[in-house]
Amino acid sequence: MERRLPRTASDLLTGLALAGLTAAAWAAWLGWDQHRDVRGDGTTTGPYEAWQVIGLVLTLLPPVYWAASRRHALAAVLGVPLGLTACAFLDWSDDASGLFMVGVTMVLVGSLAVTAAVTALITYGKRAGRPRGTAGGTPAGGR
């Protein structure tokens, strides 16, 4: 007899796993670059380059797809923004200007919106690809 976790426990574990994976991806892509670059005209950029953020986003797409395609959409929508927001808070909290919470809030709102949109597209795509009269991918006739 196969024992399964209740749905809420499974979603909670999936969400926490996604948050942990997100934190690891943040560390791999953004955690090592902590200095700002000073240009010749005195302006500063950074600390992150565009390719680092793009790499982070592309790294997070497969786990979000995995979770959303296995009916853990809520875990995907909450897990990734939780991980990104926690990392942003920890990484930026030593900011002397005191404006780091503005950036953390922007990370929370932006990642929540984008992850929700991507998850909705994945979920819709999976449902649209399923033939009519099926439940969970099994044909109506039981074959």
UniProtKB/TrEMBL annotation:
Membrane-spanning segments: 51-68, 73-92, 98-122
Keywords, ordered alphabetically: Membrane, Transmembrane, Transmembrane helix
Name used for this protein in its record: Uncharacterized protein
Lineage per the UniProt record: Bacteria, Bacillati, Actinomycetota, Actinomycetes, Kitasatosporales
